[in-house]
Every structure is written in structure tokens, then in C-alpha cells.
């Protein structure tokens, strides 16, 4: 288990001191660990993860409900889905450095479990569940918002989370009764390191261009640039 030194080190990282240290330990135990340690066969972070998922959902929903007070239910649901997502939770876990403190089986560790998004996302929710049980909702809320407020403010800059092609299409259908068309303008570089330059047309005019290592990423970048040019930003629609 974690030594007192390691516990203190981890608590300093997250700026939270557990009253019940066993909750912190349990939050870090992946179920695979029990396969190699009989004493932990039925001890893992899955129930804490379930609880943390519900707590996170409420915290984020409350925050965006207040911040984007003019948004519709559908718009808030889309935004929440982008925020409470595996990639973003894993990103936060990586920022904190949770991966190096987790208890994993040797097999999971050898196959990159400490860097796997699904495991990192789950352990963040388990940690949140532990904090909620340890000292209540307000401390859990403070912990979450410390990592998520800035990400929410700048979420429209994250191409991995925001589907700009869909946002642009919804806008052009509503405003112009037209669907954007994507065309490859240029292929750059050798075959083993090719890049695609893509343009997106609306009403026969190119309104955005994007560069990417494949057509899909180039189209997303083009759509993002088109949204900027047409002043269709995620937060403005909310």
C-alpha cells in the first residue's frame, strides 16, 4: 500500500488532505490488482467510480446551467457530454499525475495501463467519489472546478472534443439552407508523411481552410476556421 510519505506527496499534488486515508487508497486500486493479490480480490475502486461519476455529473451540470443561463436543454446536454468525457478526464488525471500512484496488475502495467484513457478517467471519478464521502459535496465541487473551469472556458479550442463539422453544418442549414462541402485543395509532403489541405465551401465560397495529417482532421480544422470566420463559436451559441 501507499506509504505515509507517498500519501502525503499525493495529497499535496491534489491540494486535499483525506480524513479517511483508506478512501484514498481504495480510489487508486484497479480491479486487475486483485487478480495478483488475494487480499484485494474484492477490493477495488469501481463503487467509488460509480459514485464519483454521479457527483461529477451534478457538479458540471450545475456549473454550466448557471454559466450558460440562456442555453437550451439540448445545448447544455451537448456541452456536458464534451466535458464529462473520457479524454478530458484522462487529461486531468495526467495533469495531476494519478497514473504513477495507481495499483495495477503487472499485465495492465506492461500493456500501458498507467497511460490508458479509460483507466485514468475511471480513477479520477473514483478519487472524486472518495473526496465526496470523506468531506461532502462542497469540497468535491471545489476539487472538480479547480481543474475544469478553465477547460470549460476554452473547450472550443479542443478539436478532440468539439465536432466543428456538425456545428458548422447546423449553422449553415439554419442560416442558408445549405450543407457545407469539403474539398481537398492540396496534398503536401511525401507519401509516408503526407498532409492534406482542405477547404470548406458554403454557398460556393471557401469560408475556411485546414491542414491535417488526414482528411478527417483537416476537415475539422477547416470547419473550426469557418466557424471563426462566420462568428459561430460554441460559447456564443450557448
UniProtKB/TrEMBL annotation:
The protein's GO terms of the molecular function aspect are:
double-stranded RNA binding; identical protein binding; metal ion binding; ribonuclease III activity; rRNA binding
Q: Quickly give the catalysed reaction.
A: Endonucleolytic cleavage to 5'-phosphomonoester
Binding-site list for Mg(2+): 49, 122, 125
Q: What class of enzyme is it?
A: hydrolase
Cofactor dependence: Mg(2+)
Task: List the active site.
Answer: 53, 125
- Cellular location(s): Cytoplasm
Can you tell which superkingdom this protein's organism belongs to? Bacteria
What is this enzyme's EC? Answer: 3.1.26.3
Q: Which GO terms describe its biological process?
A: mRNA processing; regulation of gene expression; rRNA processing; tRNA processing
Occurrences of domain DRBM (ranges): 163-232
Question: What's in the GO CC field?
Answer: cytoplasm
Q: Domain named RNase III: which ranges?
A: 7-136
For this UniProt record, give its keywords in alphabetical order, as a comma-separated list.
Cytoplasm, Endonuclease, Hydrolase, Magnesium, Metal-binding, mRNA processing, Nuclease, RNA-binding, rRNA processing, rRNA-binding, tRNA processing
InterPro entries, A to Z: dsRBD_dom, RNase_III, RNase_III_dom, RNase_III_sf
Q: Which family does it belong to?
A: Belongs to the ribonuclease III family.
What does it do? Answer: Digests double-stranded RNA. Involved in the processing of primary rRNA transcript to yield the immediate precursors to the large and small rRNAs (23S and 16S). Processes some mRNAs, and tRNAs when they are encoded in the rRNA operon. Processes pre-crRNA and tracrRNA of type II CRISPR loci if present in the organism.
**What does the subunit section of this Swiss-Prot or TrEMBL entry state?**
Homodimer.
Sorted alphabetically, which HAMAP family does this protein's record hold? RNase_III
| Name recorded for this polypeptide | Ribonuclease 3
